[in-house]
Backbone:
């Protein structure tokens, strides 16, 4: 969240330290508010479900923001600049872990939506692995850069990482999210044409709002990296990654509540850690039957 890198520009726009602190306060407030308002459902989910890959990713998306906020507070309150490189590198690493966990939840969600189709798995895996490699390279490059960077009190630094290196992972992220949105909307349209369910119900069921919001955040970030100079880029990037984590964890909780409140629906035949929700199974069952004119 600190200015450890910045996009190149002819006319830099400096964001005051107070402005960065205001953004930090907003992020902390959002994380704590979301946690408190969903605590009951979260405890039910954590205590009432078995440990799976999806649950592990939820834990990473849900609680990494708290570690990032605590680390940022430590950066601001650091009495000396000797520990700044290690703290800043840890901050970048946690942001990368949070982004990868959140995107993996969206990927697994889409994979389950397509009944664990092999072609969909390959298509999603290729882009996700490309994003993973891009993030690893970015974190390593930032770590090398920070070893020779001069810091000021508060662990601020005027040094920058080349824009192309920052932009590459976000382009891969954008491609992955476009693929997730496209596959989700295509599946939703197929079910709608077959079952004639209400479109808004389907959109809520497939959590299109969460996926589109993540795509919008990524687009805004790419625009900021390319066209917004100075210290605004890193602040927007950190804010976007925190928002991705909140979106992914909220979507996971919504799916859990939907599954728990649909006891009358038969269980899915795809018993894996990427299972569909019960309502998705109902839609797929209805889709296997020729719909009548009275189906809504």
Residues:
């Amino acid at each position: 969240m600190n200015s450890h890198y910045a996009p190149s520009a002819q006319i830099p726009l400096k964001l005051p330290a107070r402005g960065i602190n205001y953004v930090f306060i907003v992020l902390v407030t959002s994380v704590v508010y979301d946690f408190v308002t969903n605590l009951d459902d979260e405890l039910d989910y954590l205590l009432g479900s078995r440990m799976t890959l999806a649950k592990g990713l939820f834990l990473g998306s849900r609680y990494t923001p708290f570690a990032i906020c605590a680390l940022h507070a430590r950066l601001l309150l650091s009495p000396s600049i000797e520990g700044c490189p290690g703290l800043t590198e840890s901050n970048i690493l946690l942001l990368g872990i949070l982004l990868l966990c959140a995107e993996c939840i969206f990927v697994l969600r889409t994979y389950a939506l397509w009944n664990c189709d092999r072609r969909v798995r390959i298509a999603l895996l290729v882009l996700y692995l490309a994003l993973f490699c891009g993030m690893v390279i970015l974190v390593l490059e930032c770590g090398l850069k920070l070893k020779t960077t001069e810091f000021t009190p508060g662990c601020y630094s005027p040094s920058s990482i080349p824009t192309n290196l920052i932009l590459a992972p976000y382009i891969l992220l954008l491609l992955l999210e476009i693929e997730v949105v496209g596959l989700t909307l295509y599946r939703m349209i197929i079910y709608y044409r077959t079952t004639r369910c209400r479109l808004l119900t389907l959109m809520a069921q497939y959590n299109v709002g969460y996926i589109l919001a993540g795509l919008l955040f990524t687009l805004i970030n790419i625009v900021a990296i390319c066209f917004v100079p100075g210290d605004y880029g890193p602040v927007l990037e950190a804010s976007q990654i925190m928002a991705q984590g909140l979106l992914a964890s909220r979507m996971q909780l919504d799916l859990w509540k939907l599954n728990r409140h649909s006891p009358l629906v038969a269980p899915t035949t795809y018993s894996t850690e990427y299972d569909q929700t019960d309502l998705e199974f109902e839609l797929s069952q209805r889709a296997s039957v020729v719909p009548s004119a009275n189906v809504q």
Notes: The chain has ten helices and no strands. The first helix runs from residue 17 to 37. The two ends are 48 Å apart (CA to CA). Residues 3-15, 263-296 have pLDDT under 50 and may be disordered.
